[in-house]
Amino acid sequence: MLRSLVGSEMCIRDRVSTQSTGDRVAAMAKPVLWERDEDARRTTNGEHPPSAGSLGNNTRGAVMPTGFHHIALVCKNMGQTIKFYEGALGMKLRAVYPMHGIKGAKHCFLEAGNGNEISFVEFTDPKPSTNPPSFFTVWPEGSHHHMAYRCETLEQLHKLRSQVKAYGVPITKVVDHDFIHSCYFTDPSGFNLEITCTLRGYTEEEFQPDVIFRSIQPGENDHAASDKHGNNVTEDPKAKAKL
Questions:
Q1: What is the pLDDT of residues 40-82, one digit of tens each?
Q2: Cβ neighbours around 236 below 10 Å, total
Q3: Of 21, 158, 167, 177, which has the most beta carbons under 10 Å away?
């Protein structure tokens, strides 16, 4: 069942307090199907309200995880990696030790916020990377494409972007994807990173199950009017207020 526009407006106002009235009205233009963490907010010990699977069958398990405990990535240089994530993204090293059961490997964990941790593994003699050099090219199956870190407000997003830029890392301007605002950069190992802020819940535009079973047609990957990847960048809310 579709959410009412009144409920959507309240959610948007609470989550993105730095938006102008016009921005909020634009974000409300489409009825919201559900918000992020829809079921997570209603679970007890991971047990969620009964529901069918998304593809129309009753195969959904009754218990879901509470979130990511950690995601482990292979880095080129652990020292440079820790300095980057602490200096550019403000994280904190919480653990580092010889990796259990894997010869020549070291393992570290950094606090990433909201109970999540990002983990890195460095090998003494690693295999060369096979990842493509560009975010916007075809990638091999089983590869890591990008990692997105969440900001609660647009003000936090812009502050974090400024911090990454001040660290000396090339980073895109903030791009308006309609339901989220994001910017992109890479870490010392070449992993594609994103920092993003949610403006509204998912609508029918973001929920198209038929895509699962068919090939993408020419033109479907063209950016929407609100998604220009650089052309319709947003301004720092504080800077905009001074105009």
A1: 777 777 787 777 777 766 677 777 777 788 999 999 999 999 9
A2: 17
A3: 158
